[in-house]
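Quarterly update from the structural biology core.
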Amino acid sequence: MNWKQHGPKWLLFFLLFILGLALSFKSIREPDLWWMYRTGEWIWENGAVTYSDPFSYTQEGRDWINVKWLFEAIIVLFKKMGGPEMVFLLQALISLGLMYFSAASARLLDPNRNGLSMAWAFAIGLPILLFGLDFRLIGRPEMSSHLLVAIYLFLFLRQSQKPEHNGIFWLIPLQLLWTNLHEAFGIGMVLMFAVLGSSWAQYFLMGKTTALPKKQTLAILGALLVIPINPRGIAMWAHPFNIFGQLQNNKYTSELNSYLEASYWMKEAYINLFFLGAALLFLGLLLFGSKEGRPKLGQLLGWPNLVLPALLFYLSLTAYRNIPFFLLASAPFLLALVERLIRPLVQKSWQIGVSLGLSLVLAGSYSLVVSGNYHKWTESRDQFGLQVLHSHNPVKAAEFMAQQQINGRGFADYLSSAYLLWRLQPDFKTYIDLRDLDIFPADFFAQYEKLLQNPALFDAEDQKYNFEYVVLLRRPIEQIPTLYVHLHDSPNYVLVYADPVAMVYVKRLPKYEQLIAEKGLTKTTKKDIFETWGKSTSSTIPLVLTKMLYPFFENEENPEVNQWAIGAHLYYALDEQELAQQALEKALQHPDKAMAYSVQGRLAARQYLDPKSTAEQKAQAFKTGKMAFEQALALAPENLESLFGIGVLLAEEKQYAVAIQYFQAAKKLAPENPAITGRLNACYEALGQ
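Predicted structure, tokenized:
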């Protein structure tokens, strides 16, 4: 190899490789992964695929069409190699595959490409693709659908340019795999039908100027015929329609919101539009940038390769989480466009300078990712490094339950149950979990949401199932279920553990008498049971792999999070004033005081509103509360609790006009909140409006 000639290209490729790894080496925050691990372990233990629900006691035995059983079995193999964090090694391999097939498709789009300028285009365009995909590089089974879409698009494009090539028959084993990996295998079916229809339309309408789509037809028919090679057989042909119906009914995650919802318009949605613009610009250059004009566009790309990106762009508009599919469809156009634009720079006097400049940009991007600054600056929910985040998973609560032998039938809420199912196996079973409508009917979900706020419904379920304990994920105060306080006030349950992630209550049973005596927080025993979550953990091999990319990596402690403010917040919600004040004193020593000030304001407002408070106490509470809320808003202007709290204080002091301003700001953040609406209307009435 001529290193002087090819060295710059290989340096760029190496930097792209490690950047792809770095963006994929993430910490586990997704609660979904845990029930998938448990399912995969069950499959290996039993040598069979799950046909009915073995994990919940409310739906036990219910029919379960578990499409992604093969993905679950695969990630368990990776886990056995080094721990649950190894799922992100699989994600890294998938990410590299996405880069490879996007680049391979781009190379097909322009036969006159230059090798060095193409490498430059990859160095510019592939990081943009990775940063656009970053929000879904999260270790979930959809990674398989992302990769297969990229491969399908490559196969279709290559077949349109080389009709004699037999590679199109890879569709058959790939569709077989897809049907057993992820529910989105229906996307493959749609793409194949679109190719079949547009290929034959092109053949009939353009006559002898295009090849007979014989191989496409045979390959696609073969791929459709192997779909029933699945534990569920021919039912898989119709299953995509069932999935579509589930998505229409699933209102439990904002990632399914379409472009019509405000929550869809995150930065990734605008990146999606950028990729659309790049694709249209490239097609415009093909269409008008040569003497051949319009015929060249159809002959070079083929009709299917114009139809498929359009379909995937429509798909990207239907749900926020579908944006990656169009990014992958349009990435080859972006790469080919960039190559055309920078090709004139391929001159001897420019080669070293451009290659060095791009290398520095890639190295800088890599440094930002592994140091954690990229995730902070982009306000990403993800973090670099293979570790299990204690800040996002009820790790400490599960350890406490295992140590204290808290077992039997319990009630664990929707978000905490998946980790407990995995960590406390084999005896733990769920009331509800993240398998969603695959297992739990929509009316069951509706009842679950109601019982969090309706103690009578919870008590009825308790009587029916005889819970022995309750585990609840801690929530922001405006989302705290009535169930928190109901259990604390109940003569039947005692809070024995709390941290910034989860809370554990046990029922007053003989087997928990000693635990309650030692650690129980009751109205008469004011024990401080709140604990911080401590350091996140990494298994040995994941830690080694992470340090290979960044030797200075340390497990996350989240020092920037004011955990004692969360503790004060929790005690405030439970009306434990003394404990809240104790936690607040620690919280006010932390650099991030926004939440601490907000809780301080809440505590003062509660004293102000207490009928037992004297006039002097009320005056002091108003002064303290107003100042605390103002300090909180100075640090976090959109803090809902502080906006509402200061509005309440001002309204109680009959400063209605000023209070209205705060209530209006709060209503913008929570337009459906009845307490805010009621207070706002009361102020208007007091002013005669």
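The mean pLDDT is 91.
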